[in-house]
Amino acid sequence: MIATGICHTDLASAHGHKGPGLPAILGHEGSGIVEKVGADVRHVEVSDHVLLTYNACLECKPCQRGSPSYCKNGERVCFGGARLDGTKTFSLDGKDINSAYFGQSSFSKRSIVRGFCAVKIDKSLPLEILCIIGCGIQTGAGTVLNVLKPQVGSSIAIFGVGGVGLAAIMAAKNFTPASKIIAVDIVDLRLDIAKELGATHTVNSKGGDIVALLNSLTDGDGVDRTVDCTGNLTVIQNMIAATANNGIAATVGGAPHGRFVQIEPATWIGRNVSYVGSCQGSSVPKTFIPALVEFWKQGRFPIDKISKSYSYKDVNKAVEDMESGHTIKPVLIWED
User: Fold this and answer.
1) For the residues of 222-284, what is the DSSP string, one character each?
2) Could you tell me the CATH number of the domain that includes residue 184?
């Protein structure tokens, strides 16, 4: 392993809110160099450089139909703490521990990774920058490009402009014909970065009526496409309320289980608003990740502007900086 991005999902698992339970080896935005290859792996070879991404069973109907991000066994293969056959990839003092997190468990100098999770890239490219594509970046960009698909002259609002939200901003700015790209957050520093990366409007929603503010930016029509990257139910409810008739609202943030968004059917009929979930940006990693890498090479997807490298020994500092907003996307470097 060369580098691994830190994602809020890792922190949720570390705090026991989602995942296999502790002790466990987490990490799911890894990058590294292949040292050994299993007999059934054909797409990578020893010494290849790879970016790592989410896992899928490859056997269920969604997988067979080309939608691995909606794998029926996705929860198990990403968060179950073991391979599909129940075996684990790490042990501690002779005892197996929860691993195979997202098929990679990349918070480690070495790991045993599911073949599907490894996407080959050119050896000349910086693994410490591109590693963050594997989850959060492809989720934000994919939700805009594969799910929402803003039309010419349309508006799009991104609620929560951390790593996922800023990826959505960059995708909307550089690869869609949307005319209004609105960043919504409660941290001014993040809004400043969103403006730099392509937001045409920024809104600090702290203490304000966000629906009224967004209506004022869209001549009272509402926003054509909206995406929530926070998982906060109040934010989600406001997002839906701010979505224009015939619009699409997408959720990517991990909302808590057992909590619900309220929708009034009588009003819903007249609005024709679609509320959808987006997992991993509905992406197929073997084609989508190389495309994002190429966009970065062309200077059209500057993800290096939102990441900061830390020694793996400084992981607690990296997490602290991310939670405080001082760092958008921390990356752990696996060198002594």
Assistant:
1) -EEEEEE-S--HHHHHHHHHHEEEEEEEEE-S-PPTT------HHHHHHH--EEEE-SGGG--
2) 3.40.50.720
